[in-house]
Prior knowledge:
The chain is an all-alpha fold.
Amino acid sequence: MRSVALAFAALLLAACQQQAKPPAKPAEITFDGAEVTGAAAKIAHGERLTHVLGCTGCHNKGLVGDRFYERYASNLTRDLPKYSDGEIERVLRTGVPRDGRDLWGMPSEIFQHLSAGDMRALIAELRTLKPSGQPTLPPLPWTQEGKDEIVGGHLKPAAVFVREERKKTPVDLGPNYARGRYITMVTCAECHGPELKGDRDFTPNLVVAGGYTRAEFERFMTQGIPAGGRKLKRKLMAEVAKTRFSHLTVQERDELYAYLKARAEQP
């Protein structure tokens, strides 16, 4: 009788321990290659991300800096050695540099959603940069057009956009479309808005992707040529396709297309 009681107690204890076990943490969603462990492979992944995320688009080839509107996209090769890894992540995710000044044009509203694995690889690549080029230039005075954009609320410091858009994300269509959605959050949302609904008359709602076949989408995203060979109203997307989205893997473009297509076909 005593042995039966002991066996029952053991089973009860095991059941309680099983119930108390915390649920498994869901796998992190990343770009292809974030799971690598070797230092060289991690740096290579980070280097690819400098293209996909548009770092080279604003900070120029080699990340040596470039004029961006009246502001100046800093020379990262000279400025980042002054930053710790934590400070680099902070400025990327929050739009707040170590001196606390306002940053204009820095798309931290999308970088705040970057996965930890992708962030680590990006920082690893940035750490390999050797100082080159000229020191970061001071900003020019705002033009009247820039002042009007600020007054109209269309142009704001990066930190403000981060706060405003933190909880605005594209519709969640479930795990089968999770990575495609993630890619839109850290790339497409920069121009098409956090919910991909378009930005004024500048960019369209990405339901337009629903009208593309997979082959047409591939051509558009790698060569900047839209369906039917029509001319784009603005040339920016053609340039972005060739300099950024062409660096996505085929699998990533598959998943991006699948998500956008499913989003467009929602009732």
